[in-house]
């Protein structure tokens, strides 16, 4: 539900909330499966899928998940993605299940690109774990860096009004008819203007990572 408070605070908060909510849902889909520890270790050593995951010990050091949590995540990931990687179409299909009342295609595209850190057109188990680790257990700074990267669509180090508008429209398309009160057609653009009034400190028409983090922390 969208509230008047969200309108006064700016839609950047909505974007971060939706990121975390959707990622929690993704964790639920890929993780909540019971299995024995030895079986998963054997599978990770013997797997013949196209993409071989890094050792659990290395992923444990690179993320904020325990070895057992990584085992749970891997079993679910492998069940859903036998090839060892998720392509964008699969990612969109997963998100469509979470938001059936709207069109999540565009937002899933942006989120996929944020998880696909090496920009090779696929999200591996390692990509998934590292992104999820930040979203669920990262510091405020880490989460805001991740969110900025999502909003910075062309990855040039700046958020423009056009980029933010694309994200806002994608969020509202995804949420569909579940917003109350029903939003006006120009609501995304109004939220972008509010966003820039608060964050574009030097009024140069773009928001830098420093401006973004400073404003959000306040």
From TrEMBL:
Membrane topology: Peripheral membrane protein
Keywords tagged on the record: Calcium, Cell membrane, Cytoplasm, Ion channel, Ion transport, Membrane, Metal-binding, Peroxisome, Phosphoprotein, Potassium, Potassium channel, Potassium transport, Repeat, Transmembrane, Transmembrane helix, Transport, Voltage-gated channel
SUPFAM superfamilies in the record: EF-hand (SSF47473)
Sequence ranges assigned to domain EF-hand in this UniProt record: 103-138, 139-174, 187-218
Gene Ontology cellular component annotations, sorted alphabetically: peroxisome; voltage-gated potassium channel complex
Compartment annotation: Cell membrane; Cytoplasm; Peroxisome
Chief location category: membrane
Single biological process term from Gene Ontology: regulation of potassium ion transmembrane transport
Pfam families associated with the record: EF-hand_6 (PF13405), EF-hand_7 (PF13499)
Family as reported in the entry's similarity comment: Belongs to the recoverin family.
Protein name, per record: Kv channel-interacting protein 4
């Amino acid at each position: 539900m969208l509230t008047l408070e969200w309108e006064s605070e700016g839609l950047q908060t909505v974007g971060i909330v939706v990121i975390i909510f959707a990622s929690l849902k993704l964790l639920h889909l890929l993780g909540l499966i019971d299995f024995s520890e030895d079986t998963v270790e054997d599978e990770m050593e013997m797997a013949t899928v196209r993409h071989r995951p890094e050792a659990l010990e290395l992923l444990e050091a690179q993320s904020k998940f325990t070895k057992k949590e990584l085992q749970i995540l891997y079993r679910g990931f492998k069940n859903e993605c036998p090839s060892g990687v998720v392509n964008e179409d699969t990612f969109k299909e997963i998100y469509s299940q979470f938001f059936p009342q709207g069109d999540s295609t565009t937002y899933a595209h942006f989120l996929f690109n944020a998880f696909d850190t090496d920009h090779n057109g696929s999200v591996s188990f390692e990509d998934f774990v590292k992104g999820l680790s930040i979203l669920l257990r990262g510091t405020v700074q880490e989460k805001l860096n991740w969110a900025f990267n999502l909003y910075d669509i062309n990855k040039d180090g700046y958020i423009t009004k056009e980029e933010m508008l694309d994200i806002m429209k994608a969020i509202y398309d995804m949420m569909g008819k579940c917003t109350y009160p029903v939003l006006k057609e120009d609501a995304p653009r109004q939220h972008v203007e509010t966003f820039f009034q608060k964050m574009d400190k030097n009024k140069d028409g773009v928001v830098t990572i420093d401006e973004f983090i400073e404003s959000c922390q306040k």
